[in-house]
TrEMBL record:
The protein, known as: histidine kinase
Source species taxonomy: Bacteria, Bacillati, Bacillota, Bacilli, Bacillales
UniProt cross-references to InterPro entries, sorted A to Z: HAMP_dom, HATPase_C_sf, HATPase_dom, His_kinase_dom, HisK_dim/P_dom, HisK_dim/P_sf, Sig_transdc_His_kin-like_C, TCS_sensor_his_kinase
Record-annotated Histidine kinase domain positions: 235-446
Cell compartment(s), UniProt: Cell membrane
SMART domains reported for this sequence: HAMP, HATPase_c, HisKA
Reactions listed under catalytic activity: ATP + protein L-histidine = ADP + protein N-phospho-L-histidine
Positions of transmembrane segments: 6-30
Major localisation: membrane
Keyword vocabulary terms for this entry: ATP-binding, Cell membrane, Kinase, Membrane, Nucleotide-binding, Phosphoprotein, Transferase, Transmembrane, Transmembrane helix, Two-component regulatory system
Length: 448
């Protein structure tokens, strides 16, 4: 059964059951109250009659009984031995009545040719001291009519109340299912067209809005991943083309000329080796880039940033015999992914080393809930025009393209991706001829 039909059937049925239950309750309550009222009246009449009969001489009894006889009624006095002492009726339909009380309550209702009759009974002591029972019955035509009218009114009201209930359940079904249908339609279209279309998020702040937001977020993520993947494939094939072509042409040269010409052979092997190393670096960095923004790849924990800085710098000092200084507090606790932060610092420190000759300075600072790290060098600096593109993939400042620094132009774009993953801001300040400072800042506590 469709969700819409289910909502429809469930709300309609539920409301019908509530209304029918209420109407039935009202009907039976009214019926009980009306019969009780009639029985009370008959009891009153009977009690007055018993008092009156005790004062009345035997020959006048019939007259008194007739005076107290209810209209459309019957009256019977039964002796203790079951003998009928008096048996009169004012309506021919009640010949042979009053009925025997069934003892289930203070009054009995009997059906007399489709009309209800109410009978009450009470003890009666005759003037002769004989214990007898007085039974009075009255036909309740008017009550039957009132109940029939009430039944009609209640059925009519229930039916009338069901109209808005049905209308609102149809509307409710539409409100709930329309966004789901739109979502299903968009998903189908996306699958058919291979697109990442989003859906209208609407203005409400309800669960359906939340669902649309979650779906659109998912589409964003899928779209980004797809773009990333495409970019990776095109970047990889574009950047790997040059070294592969170089390797291929030198290999052909070797094949053609053999190893007879020592100079050519040396040049070819040298070129093949350097291009292979370049390809290895490129693929490693491209793979790092492709993985860098997978949220699951980041594991945050409390760590001492000073320790991370020392651990990054120590092997570099040894490997390059250069001066790498660290300034700032001896302990700086913050929440981060230590491995990723180490990777990020390494890229910046390695660039400072590659593009300058003097000392490289790493500064640590804590300011208003933020950790600030700065990597400064006194290298040639970066022209202002290049600064906005520095974090683009494969971007290299022109003068460095020809220099043998062995770069790929991927380091800073990877640094940017890692900084994003860490929730950190990365920025650069540089003055040509003076030096360059790369800054990273991130909150000490991720929740704040
Ligand atoms: P790579 O270093 O592999 O070329 P990067 O993305 O790390 O790639 O850097 C991009 C370019 O930015 C470099 O080619 C270089 O021209 C410039 N650059 C990066 N860091 C510095 C620095 N500290 N000083 C001067 N230039 C730099």
């Amino acid at each position: 059964m469709k969700l819409r039909t289910r909502i429809h059937v469930f709300t309609t049925l539920l409301m019908f059951l509530i209304l029918a239950g209420l109407s039935t309750g009202i009907y039976f309550l009214f019926e009980k109250m009306t019969y009780e009222r009639q029985a009370d009246q008959l009891m009153g009449r009977g009690e007055e009659l018993t008092v009156e009969l005790q004062k009345t001489a035997a020959e006048d009894r019939d007259m008194v009984i007739r005076a107290y006889m209810p209209p459309d009624g019957a009256l019977l006095i039964v002796g203790a031995d079951g003998r009928k002492i008096t048996d009169v009726e004012s309506d021919s339909r009640l010949r042979g009545f009053p009925a025997e009380p069934d003892g289930s309550g203070p009054y009995t209702i009997t059906d007399v040719k489709g009309v209800p009759a109410v009978t009450v009974a009470m003890p009666f002591i005759s003037t002769g001291g004989e214990v007898a029972e007085l039974r009075i019955t009255q036909l309740a035509d008017d009550i039957a009519n009132e109940l029939a009218t009430l039944r009609l009114i209640l059925i009519g009201l229930t039916a009338a109340a069901m109209i808005p209930v049905i209308a609102s359940s149809v509307a409710l079904g539409q409100i709930v299912t329309r966004p789901i249908n739109v979502l299903t339609g968009t998903m189908r279209e996306n699958r058919e067209k291979g697109a990442y279309e989003k859906i209208d998020e609407g203005r409400g702040r309800d669960e359906l809005h939340e669902m649309a937001l979650a779906y659109n977020d998912m589409m964003d993520q899928l779209g980004r991943n797809y773009e990333k993947q495409e970019r990776f494939v095109s970047d990889a094939s574009h950047e790997l083309k040059t070294p592969i072509t170089v390797i291929e042409s030198y290999a052909r040269l070797l094949k053609r000329r053999g190893f007879g010409d020592r100079n050519v052979a040396d040049e070819a092997v040298e070129a093949i080796l350097s291009q292979s190393i370049r390809m290895k670096d490129l693929t490693a960095q491209l793979l790092d880039l492709a993985r860098s923004d997978q949220a699951a790849a980041y594991t945050f924990k409390q760590a001492d940033i000073r320790d991370i800085a020392e651990e990054t710098v120590r092997p570099m000092r040894q490997a390059y015999g250069r001066e790498f200084s660290i300034e700032g507090p001896e302990k700086l606790l913050a929440e981060t992914d230590p491995d990723k932060l180490r990777q990020l610092l390494f890229i910046l420190l390695d660039n400072a080393r590659k593009y300058s000759d003097g000392a490289v300075r790493l500064t640590l600072e804590e300011k208003e809930g933020l950790v600030e790290l700065a990597v400064a060098d006194h290298g040639p600096g970066i022209p202002e025009a290049d600064l906005p593109h520095l974090f683009d993939r494969f971007y290299r400042v022109n003068s460095d393209r020809n220099r043998k620094t062995g770069g790929t132009g991927l380091g800073l774009s990877l640094a940017k991706e890692i900084a994003d993953g860490l929730g950190a801001e990365i920025s650069v300040e540089s003055v040509v001829g003076v030096g360059t400072v790369f800054r990273i800042s991130f909150p000490t506590n991720r929740q704040s």
